[in-house]
């Protein structure tokens, strides 16, 4: 009996230590996360213990009504959700990566009402796979090479019962940080990729917005004061695909496809934004005189040197004092509307192929259109004179 008691004593002491310090053996019940052979009773304990090159593997679904912080300066590790879910509830509950480099994969992070992930300026996050339902706010460096991103329907409802998509429905919100998307699926009622400032680069991916509206609430990709480069990807919506505002700069090239069924605009350029289009396919199937592939009603500047543009309405409608320079590309309208409309603005065409088999070449509405000898313009009715 004494021998048995002596044998039990070390075991009991080890269990007490495990409880006190949050570590348990791999086989113990109640293990929330694991690093190698060592189990931890909570994700927070695992984060505090992880070292560079190691992987935290979740062992069960976890629910939080508070912030879970990661602050590991100089440490680079992987958070493998292992098919499990991190469920956050409420406006002050999310994964807050303050420092370090974290790779996240293989599971779900969700918040039905608000944010799921906040990335501070000193942090680097790499998302390679998984499902992310809720808003991600990025002030650091975020790289997305896979995964599905969306906003829960309940996240759109405010206390007064209204639906404020513009302010609340952002799949990824980059504020002074750097965002790079090379793959992934982004699909929700709005699924806005919003860059308030900072730099966003999209080289591939599938982006879809089902919001059916022509106001600023429905904008699939929104750039305000930063830089946006789109090198590829498929973007489809019932609203505007791209909204470039303020003093932002956007360059579109590569195997990029924009398409919308909106009766408003495919690309919206406002204020002093600059947009350059070098290559891609751009299609608007809205079928009225106000439907435009490119719409600007301020001081925005648009330069087009290539790409294929098709519209059920007009191709370019410029208001305010904006400017459009077209040096190349293929342009086609399918209805009885002008291809180009200049409203107190200047549209300069030095190249490209324009075809309006049922419509007009252009319309002057207080603005100016100049067509150089390098451009080919064919229309059924010529210049629209009102």
In short:
With 386 residues, the chain is mainly beta. The protein is built from 3 helices and 34 strands.
Architecture overview:
The chain has helices at residues 2-21, 43-49, 165-168, and strands at 23-25, 33-35, 38-40, 55-58, 62-64, 68-80, 85-88, 95-105, 108-127, 131-138, 141-150, 170-188, 192-202, 206-209, 219-223, 227-237, 240-244, 249-260, 265-269, 274-277, 281-284, 292-296, 301-304, 308-311, 314-318, 323-326, 330-333, 338-342, 346-349, 352-356, 360-364, 368-371, 375-379, 383-384. The protein has 386 residues and is mainly beta. It has a 34-stranded mixed β-sheet that branches. Strand 2 (33-35) and strand 3 form a beta hairpin. The longest helix has 20 residues, at 2-21.
Provide the helix percentage.
Answer: under 10%
* Oligomeric state as shown: single chain
Q: Shape from CA axes?
A: elongated
Cα end-to-end separation = 106 Å
Task: Give the averaged pLDDT, no decimals.
Answer: 87
